[in-house]
Design a protein that fits this description.
The protein has three domains: 66 residues; 54 residues; 178 residues, Ribonuclease H-like superfamily/Ribonuclease H (Nucleotidyltransferase, domain 5, 2-Layer Sandwich). 51% of the residues lie in helices and 12% in strands. Strands 3-2-1-4-5 form a five-stranded mixed sheet, sandwiched between helices.
């Protein structure tokens, strides 16, 4: 099937691409892709674009496809290129990682690419290994999920434990309407539209969707979840800036919990999740009025999984958003319907991870901070 992708840029995306192209600075291939997107939105045919920019029509097609399916940054980025077989096999890559994580040679403060290349020649049967090969293998392994997890666990210390136990204690409290616990976060969404009307299913024939579809921009969904009762609220916005966060906090105080004495809000460490965001959005008197009713509790860094709202966002993504939604208006309508159903059905998230469980699972981390506590107590 001959798939055609239509390019529709937002005002911000178009301005960003124009600034980039007019500046004439940056990676050569990235500039070419920016020109492809601008020319395509202007209505030029793929063949014309390829001739004017001196690229192949397949490059034009791939750039447009990645924009529609994955967004602007993906369309401008470089795809992995096929080449010769990998020089280092799996066991040798593991040896490289272990070597890079070990102490550097005597007289050296740290490992360099050249030092690692020399070490791998001595440790393997290869006659030579380039520093570029070492760089690529290390870069690839830095992106592995298990490596990030290892880094997070190794960073567990007193601050991590303090924030974790603070949040877990909130979850363990008995429900109190005067002091509700509300978990808060947001998730970005791509607005994807159909280029042709889908064919509904019939007996013996499944529903059919055209391969061609159009990217209509992006939106953001803020999510509130009460940790102690069956209530959640999703708010769709254009962005997730400080002003949007501030409006959410005002809604929390004035609309959702008008009679609460103090609302404990569990949230992550995003730069917009601050008290100062309210002062940027409102007059000082209004900002202070709202903040008097709020109490922020931050999850540890790299531990947003401790926020109950992450689970609810996952449920929303699976039950409601796992499809093409073309417009912000439709997104608002569908999210509202999903929200009403979840609240009506009394859906709850049963949180099982407690302070006691955390101390059992993260015993090493607790042991690492106890000696410091003992020393201070003795002093």
């Amino acid at each position: 099937m001959n798939v055609r992708y239509r390019i529709t840029l937002t005002v911000e995306e178009r301005d960003e691409l124009l600034r980039f192209v007019l500046a004439g600075k940056g990676a050569f291939r990235r500039l070419k892709r920016a020109q492809i997107l601008l020319a395509s939105e202007a209505g030029s045919a793929d063949k014309t674009i390829a001739e004017n920019i001196s690229v192949s029509t397949s490059t034009v097609f791939r750039t447009k496809r990645r924009f529609v399916e994955e967004g602007l940054e993906a369309a401008l980025s470089e795809l992995p290129r096929p080449g010769a077989d990998r020089l280092l096999v799996e066991k040798e890559e593991a040896l490289l990682i272990a070597t890079a994580c070990s102490a550097p040679p005597s007289g050296r403060s740290r490992w360099t690419l050249d030092l690692l290349a020399g070490a791998m020649v001595r440790l393997t049967k290869h006659d030579s290994i380039s520093s570029e090969t070492i760089r690529r293998r290390l870069a690839e392994n830095q992106l592995k999920p298990w490596l990030k997890k290892m880094w997070c666990i190794s960073a567990v210390g007193a601050d991590f434990i303090a924030r974790m136990e603070d949040v877990l204690d909130l979850y363990a409290e008995k429900p109190d309407a005067r002091f509700p616990v509300v978990c808060f976060d947001e998730t970005p969404r791509q607005l994807i539209g159909e280029s042709r009307v889908p064919v509904p299913p019939k007996p013996g024939r499944p529903a059919r969707f055209d391969y061609e579809y159009v990217r209509n921009g992006t939106a953001n969904v803020f999510m509130f979840v009460d940790a102690h009762r069956s209530w959640r609220h999703a708010k769709v916005t254009d962005r997730r800036a400080c002003a949007d966060f501030a409006e959410c906090m005002r809604d929390l105080v004035d609309i959702h919990y008008p009679h609460a004495e103090r609302i404990r809000v569990v949230l992550d460490n995003l730069s917009t999740h601050t008290a100062s965001a309210l002062y940027e959005a409102f007059e000082p008197e209004e900002a202070r009025r709202i903040l008097r009713r709020l109490e922020f509790h931050f999850t540890p860094k790299h531990a947003s999984w401790l926020n109950i709202v992450e689970i609810e966002i996952g449920v929303m993504a699976a039950q409601c958003l796992d499809r093409r939604i073309p417009t912000k208006e439709m997104l608002i309508k569908e999210v509202k319907a999903w929200e009403r159903g979840r609240n009506r059905d009394g859906a709850r998230i049963k949180w099982l991870f407690t302070v006691e469980r955390a101390r059992e699972k993260l015993g090493r981390a607790y042991l690492s901070v106890r000696p410091q506590v003992a020393i201070r107590a003795a002093a």
